[in-house]
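User: Structure with adenosine monophosphate, tokens only please.
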Amino acid sequence: MFCGASPGARPEYAEAACELARVLSHEGIGVVYGGGGVGLMGALADAMLEQGGEVTGVIPRALVDREIAHRGVTDMRVVASMHERKALMAELSGAFVALPGGIGTLEELFEVYTWAQLGLHAKPCALLNVAGYYDGVAAFLDHAVRERFLRDETRALLMVETDPDALVERLRAFRPEPAVPKWIDREET
Ligand code: AMP
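Assistant:
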């Protein structure tokens, strides 16, 4: 789960994080996240723990103080760098979801999304589009498809959902295509 180190401007963002935590813990699905105790990261972790859910934090040593590492998570992994954080989060996760967040959240989500494009993993990627926050991103990706910088199949690899229940249902239903590197036949299109 990738999400902002800030709470954002609207209460809907934290409310959606709490609702997603409720659905996930009800389904017995744990969360792997950046390990912070602040912003939406903290709201998500707190809500998971309140519901008795499992939470794994992965935080670089240099951010332990800045992002006020959460003290109560089930499992906290302190790593040496941002690169290690992303690699370990990717390894531990069965699906990738971005809640609203800033450039850190976008960077993390887009990295794993590009790995899906390359066939490096076959795990679903999704945006939880709370209060229309990601409308602009979804519209931009559609623009990239029209301008033929992004393939339809690759666009379809990123789910965009407004409702946490529907999102978890779609993640559960996800069946990966056989992992064929998508860039191999790019010349043919
Ligand atoms: P933000 O969405 O900007 O509030 O950041 C959310 C999280 O992403 C924070 O935990 C940041 O530490 C993290 N983050 C920011 N940049 C990177 C990066 N390049 N690699 C990994 N995590 C990052």
